[in-house]
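Let's inspect a concrete specimen:
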Amino acid sequence: MTQTIAPRVRTLVLLLLAAACALLAGAGPASAHAALTGSDPREGAVVDKAPAQVSLTFSESVSMDDDSLRVLDPKGKRVDDGKPSGTGGTTYSVKLHAGLPDGTYTVTYQVVSADSHPVSGAYTFSVGAPSETSVTVSGQGAGGGFVGGLYGVGRYVSYAGFAVLVGGAAFVLACWPRGSGVRVVQRFVVSGWLSLTAATLLLLLLRGSYTGSGKVADVFDLSLLGEVLQTKAGAALVSRLLLLAAAALFIAVLFGAYDKRKDEEKRDLTFGLAVGGSVVAVGLAATWAMSEHASVGLQAGLAMPVDVVHLIAVAAWLGGLTALLVALYRGPADTPVPGLAVSRFSRVAFGSVIALVVTGTYQSWRQLGSWTAFTDTRYGQLLLVKVGLVAVLVGVAYFSRRWTAQLVAATPVTGASAARRAEKGAGKASTKAGTKASTKTSGNASTKAASKPGNASANAASKASGNASANAGTKTPGNAKVAEKASGTAKGTGGSQRAAQLARQRAAVDAARQKRQRDADPNRFGLRRSVLAEAGIAVVLLVVTTVLTQTEPGRTEEEAKAAGTSSVGNPAPATGAVTLDMPFDTGSQNGKGVVRVELDPARVGANDLHLYVERPDGTAFDIPEVKVALTQKAKDIGPLPVAPDHITTGHWSASGVQIPMAGDWEVAVTVRTSDIDQVTISKNTQIG
């Protein structure tokens, strides 16, 4: 049965591994997790005169450097000042050179979203009239190429290493304490630590090039590495390395002092190791939660601890499952995995599945936001694949639980047989010892009894003739004894070597016999097959999870579609957040500046309005009064007054601004810089 069924299971696992590799290879560059929701000028717009600056609005905050936002003229020459800056909220701008001629200009951006993923794109607008341009905007995707692929592999290895490290250690502590002395289990856990450490170092080196140029040469740029260390993702990777140093100490104690203690003495140390290991595991999981999806967006304060629980549950289930598989297939014959350990892990796995269902449901709602996102977004489609794999894995685990129950039920019988064999062996040993003891006692007694009557004659004989005999034969018998002793020593040395060789052969034969007996157990054989199938599915599940973390959440993708743009820079229609920049000059001292109005989501109904006032050099400043009015002249609606509240220096805000219908609306802003100096400026925008 072993020779016919096991190859089929191995073939299935190989096919699953191949599918996992294909899925990982086809993941492509990481999808953007921040969407471009607005721009000024908009995509494809034709303006009468050159704007003073270009502004971009994203769905979440992003980080920029001097080359993150560029504006190129028709010849490909850069016409911005190279100093992009945030103007409040999620809007970022860069100032343009004065006196730009007519033509088509290209805006390119490459930033890093708040959840540490690169975002890039490009679009065009024209001054006066469209013209030909030599600038190409294709191939602007960030996070691709060789560096992006290597970064994706590093992410997968880091997740796998975390699962092996945490799950393997938990399996030893919670399910099989004697497994701390099994060499294959030790190597398994240490391999998880090594994989996670190596992958973290690789990600730290690749990070700068991955979010920037994508060139291999930049991987070894120390100045770029210094910039990475100042980012949230870099800090998370460094924290992970520090926690891995603590994990190394934990492993040393687990497979050192803990293993050498007796079962009774292990109980006290188990509690300390469990507490310390839990702290390290939570810290390692937090390095992902605090730098990726969970750290931004809706309910981030709740999402991060939920993500930590989710990651630890995955590690306890999949990592412990793989540890059990290694112990079942590669464990020594004299230390088989007991049925009680398998039963304990079954309970741990059941609890992990419950935690995964609860936390996964919350994460799905948070990242998708609607039922249609399951089928209309790539994130939702991958999530459906993940849910299907989990369902299959739980189904296979059901059969594993059945084999576990049968193995545990058969354990007492095996234990009774072993006890009877031990009792029988002990009886033989006591009988043999008793025989030897009685023989020795009777021999001593008869010798002593026989020697008593002849003591006087023996003494006399020895005194009379012993001296002569001894003197006559002293030399020759002495040499004979030395030769005999040398010969005996030589024979003893050869005999001991032969005995040691025979002992090793017997031990090998016994180990082989024990392994055959172990593998012949139908319950254990069935458990090995089901666990192997579980592990194969778990590999694919882990790959899907890794790809999922690099995919734009469904909620963000749908918001980008609603705004008429995607995170790779598709054209933006007149829906979504609107940003309007309007220069003003009241004619007085310090009367010049720029007013920026942000209207979100710029649709019919309630909207949020933010207004920023800046000097010509870009610094925020306060003015005595600012008012806003909305007018739709085509329908003779308005002006609708808006009185924003002062928030901070140069920032005013109003919530619940009602826009009754869609169309072309005029946004007029009245700016007063002194008691007598004021001006009203306006700009039109499409709303709804």
Observations:
- The CA atoms of residues 631 and 639 lie 5 Å apart.
